[in-house]
Amino acid sequence: MPDPLDHRLLRQIATVARMGGLRAGAAALNMSQPPLSRTVRELEASLGVSLFERTARGMVPTPAGAVLIEEAEAILAALDRAAARVRRMGAWPRPLRVGFVSAALDAHLPDLLDRIAARGWPAPELVETPTELQARALARGELDLGLLHPPVEMAQGLDAVSLGRDGFLVALPKRDPLADRETIRSADLTGRPLVLFPQAQGPVLHAAITAALAPGGRRLPVAAEAARSHSQLALVAAGVGIGLIGASVARTVTYAGVVLRPWADRPDTITLECAIMGGTALLRELAFE
C-alpha cells in the first residue's frame, strides 16, 4: 500500500481534484492515466475511504477526499516554500516573486527593494495585484512576499508583519463646491455619489465607510467602483463622484482635475493598514520582525 503522506501522491490527488478527472489530471501531470487511476484506488484502499465520487461530469471529492486535498495543498505549498528558501541560500538565488498593492508604492515597496539589494540578491519579479489574489498566490507558493492590506486569511507556514496604518483624503472634482473648503467633514459627504473600491476587495474597510457615511442601515451611494486608485481618480476627475484615497497613494499620485482635502472627522476605524506577508524565515532574513 502506498504511503498516503508521500508528497508525489498528494500532488497527484490534488491535481485530479483541481482538473476534475483522471484524464485531465494525467495530462496536467504529464503522465499516463492508468498509473494515476491506480494511485487513487490504492490510496482509497490504504485510507479505507472513498476520495472521489465518479459522476458523468467528472470526479468530485467526497467529504473525506476534500479533507485530504485541503491538507495536501497545505503540505505541498509548505514544501514548495521550503524548496524556494533553500534555493535562495545559494550563491545566485533566483529572484524573489513579490506582489504589491498600489498603496505600497510610496514607501514600503522601495524599502523592500533596498533590503533585497543590500543582501546582494537579484532584483525581484514584481506584480501589482489585489490583496486576496496575493494571499492565494502566497498560499500556493506562487509568490514569495506580498505587500497587502490586512485582514486577510493567512495560510499555514506564513507570517505577516504590519508596516503601519494610513488615513484617507477626500478626492473631489475641481469644479465641485466642496473643493473650495480646506477640510471635509463626514456630513459633507452624506448622500453624495462616491467612487470606491469594490466591496469584495476590502469588506471590513468598506463596512466602516458605510457605517460612517450611511448610518442606520442606509444604502451607501456608490456611483462607480474601481480597484485601483488611479482609476478612481480618473472617475472623480470625470465628475462621476467623490473618492476616498489613501494618504500614502496621494503622496505619489496626482491627477489633473482632482483636488485632495483632509477628512477632518474621519473615524479611527477607517484606516488603510499595509503589511508584508511571507515565510517566517524569509521575513526574518529581510529584518521584518
Question: How is the secondary structure organized here?
Answer:
Blueprint: H1 7-19, H2 22-29, H3 33-47, E1 52-55, E2 58-61, H4 63-88, E3 97-100, H5 108-118, E4 125-128, H6 131-139, E5 145-148, E6 158-166, E7 168-173, H7 186-189, E8 194-196, H8 203-213, E9 222-225, H9 229-237, E10 242-246, H10 247-250, E11 258-262, E12 272-279, H11 280-285
Parallel strand pairs: 3-4, 3-5, 8-9, 8-10
Antiparallel strand pairs: 1-2, 5-12, 6-12, 7-10, 7-11
Helix pairs in contact: 1-2, 1-4
Verbal overview:
With 289 residues, this protein is of the alpha/beta class. The chain has 3 domains: 79 residues, Winged helix-like DNA-binding domain superfamily/Winged helix DNA-binding domain (Arc Repressor Mutant, subunit A, Orthogonal Bundle); 89 residues, D-Maltodextrin-Binding Protein, domain 2, CATH 3.40.190; 103 residues, Periplasmic binding protein-like II (D-Maltodextrin-Binding Protein, domain 2). 40% of the residues lie in helices and 21% in strands. The protein has a 5-stranded mixed beta sheet. A 5-stranded mixed beta sheet has the order 9-8-10-7-11. α5 links the parallel β3 and β4. The two termini are 44 Å apart. The mean pLDDT is 89.
